Amino acid sequence: QAKDAGRDGVAVFDPRLRSSAHERFELHGALRRAVSEGEITVAYQPVLALAGPADAGELGPGAVVGFEALARWHRPGHGDVSPAVFIPLAEDLGLIHALGDQVLRAACAAVRTWRDETGRPLTVAVNLSALQLAEAACVDRVVAALADTGLPADALQLEITESVLMSDVEHSTGQLAALRVLGLRVAIDDFGTGYSSLAYLRDLPIDILKIDQSFTRRLPGDGEMLDLIVRLARAIGATTVVEGVETREQLETVTRLGCDEAQGYYLSRPLGADAAAAYVHALRAAPRIG
Ligand code: C2E
Ligand code: MG
Ligand code: MG
Ligand code: MG
Description:
Blueprint: E1 2-5, E2 11-13, H1 15-36, E3 41-49, E4 64-75, E5 79-81, H2 83-92, H3 96-118, E6 123-127, H4 130-134, H5 138-149, E7 156-161, H6 162-167, H7 169-181, E8 185-191, H8 198-203, E9 208-211, H9 213-216, H10 224-235, E10 239-242, H11 248-256, E11 261-262, H12 273-285
Parallel strand pairs: 4-6, 6-7, 7-8, 8-9, 9-10, 10-11
Antiparallel strand pairs: 1-2, 3-4, 3-11, 4-5
One magnesium ion binds at residues 189-190, 210, 243.
């Protein structure tokens, strides 16, 4: 872009602007290639049960119930790019449908395999962006991914952020209802950071509230809000998953407050596909209790 006219009336280009425009252009091309060549990978963060009778063994507190699938992009020559950067970019570039489909299919296939290998009813949570939910073909894509990978619908959860749901409640409600008919579960992601209307919340077909890590960060001291959200979830018939558990004290607090499930660095970081498979196999090797 030409900035202010220079001394002799000729537009002067700011080399920094030019290089950043150039870098952006390159980044866009690299993401297009990554999606078209299937270079987006999936990391899996374990989700643990907190609730249930203490003597329920591998199904009780501390048991791994499943994973959240998180998109990863290692850009050759540049290193890892955060999903906070490339997911919005994929939305802007119209790549999110292809990218989202790749993540969904990879996650369903992996968890189908791990279920077969361990005999455990592991679940997988996949993030869905606003544009994916808005797309008319959304339900068909999910049906196809389940059919092609053989994952039972009740093993799949779809996570949608609060702001997305609330931006067009009528359409969201229709899409969520159609997805739930398949037998999968729907979670509101980053709950508590958006602008949920309580009236809508009651009417939305929602199974799970994923409590945002900003609430976990305040623990163990300040648990009032988290306590309220757990009770709100119960009032609308939803279960809770708490995100961002980083310390033992936080884990104890969310357990005491009655959250159903938890994930966070204290329990496990997101694992690459191979590490996640090893994690799952270590579960199989672990002695069965009871
Ligand atoms: P999210 O869905 O809320 O995912 C949780 C994020 O918190 C992940 O970041 C995860 O690595 C991070 N996290 C997990 N445990 C902890 C913890 O104990 N402490 C802290 N500080 N962070 C923790 P990540 O992988 O960078 O993903 C960021 C966001 O990008 C996700 O937030 C999600 O909104 C989006 N995203 C990731 N993968 C996909 C995808 O396949 N599709 C779409 N549409 N969005 C995705
Ligand atoms: Mg999520
Ligand atoms: Mg979240
Ligand atoms: Mg988040």
